[in-house]
Amino acid sequence: MSDQKSAHEGSSRIGITLETFILEGMLGHPAATGTFTSILNQISFAAKLITSKVRRAGLVNVLGYTGSTNVQGEQVMKLDEEANAALLAVLGRRKHVAAVASEELDEIEVLTNDSRARYLVMMDPLDGSSNIDVNVSIGTIFGILKRQDPEVLVSANDFLKPGVELSAAGYIMYGSSTMVVLTTGKASGVHGFTYDPTCGEFFLSHENIKIPEKGSTYSINEGNHAKWPDEVKKWANWIKDDNKAEGRPYGGRYVGTLVADAHRTLLKGGIFAYPADKKSPEGKLRLLYEANPFAFIFEAAGGKASHGKGRILEIQPTKLHQRTPLILGSPRDVEAFEDFMTGKR
Ligand code: AHG
Ligand code: MN
Ligand code: MN
Predict the structure, then answer these.
(1) pTM of the model
(2) Distance of CA 259 from the midpoint of ligand 1 (Å)
(3) Which of 5, 189, 278, 307 would bridge 227 by S-S if both were Cys, CB 3.0 to 4.6 A apart?
(4) Closest alpha carbon to 171 in 36, 326, 40, 321
């Protein structure tokens, strides 16, 4: 028997599931409380529901426009509404989440005013809608915020807190595989879990993700070049300059789904930028449920998240669906972008 592997040797290699990781407090103290664990597990359950819809999207006529438009004035794809409905149904099942702010809803959705509901969720249920019917990666983005005073009726104002106050943030990426990436902040780190559809579990696959100090890829929609302010044009030309000593030109990568572009930048380093331009003077991406969750994640992974001249997480929100310029990436790369925006370069 000595030269054969014991039958049990392999079994000790069973992966750590998302549920175990949270329950065993490996996501840090706030996650280990029953309520928080339950919310994160509800979100991972919703991820399974949405994954099954995404994987069949081309087959069950989920594609195509519903003919209605959302608060952004954009055509709403059916999958956006399905993802929104799935998340609301799952989050509303227990009395842990008082209300949800969603890209798909003009106003907040109050789930319960029960004082035991300690948390609020802001979410982009389906990010990258324009990529749904061309089979390109899409995602879900969420932030979890502690409710200030559970004795007071919940209102939209409860959501208007700077991103530094988030208790947790994460995203689901429906790519070649489905992944959940989440964090409760720098102390607990950023961790990725990959879905195994053969057993219906998310297994720890990327423990303690740290973004490289500097990268070699830049991600921006070059189609907006004519609309950019001069500082952005100067940065874009600089990043494409032939300067081997400084590691330029950077390679260009742009999917057009924030979750996909941000996930690649988080793992490989570099920079993602959606700056303000003539068409979107406030920027295109939404502060509460796109920029803040990713800014929270990137800072927890040692990266930076800027609106061009300062931290995203320090912005004091005034409206649920307000937009912001968003620059995410390796510290050195975001600092270089800010140097161009502030005229230092
Ligand atoms: P959503 O589908 O939730 O509206 O988000 C789309 C966003 C984001 O995913 C992406 O980074 C950005 O739109 C791409 O915008 P452009 O097509 O203007 O580059
Ligand atoms: Mn989005
Ligand atoms: Mn969306």
Answers:
(1) 0.93
(2) 9
(3) 278
(4) 40
**Cα-based angle 15, 16, 20 (whole degrees, multiple of 5):** 150
- The CATH number fitting domain 5-206, selected from 3.30.110.70, 3.20.20.150, 3.30.540.10, 1.10.357.10: 3.30.540.10
Among 142, 153, 211, 221, smallest CA distance to 182 is for 142
| CATH of segment(s) 217-341 | 3.40.190.80
> Which positions ≥6 away from 29 have C-beta within 8 Å?
none
- pLDDT tens figures, 316-345: 999 999 999 999 999 999 999 999 999 999
The finding on whether 256 has its CB within 6 A of some atom of ligand 1 is yes
Q: Among the residues of 269-315, which ranges form H helices?
A: 292-300
CB of 283 within 6 A of ligand 1: the answer is no
Q: Tell me the domain boundaries of the chain.
A: 5-206, 217-341
Q: Name the token pair of 127.
A: 């990010």
**What's the longest Cα–Cα distance across the chain?**
73
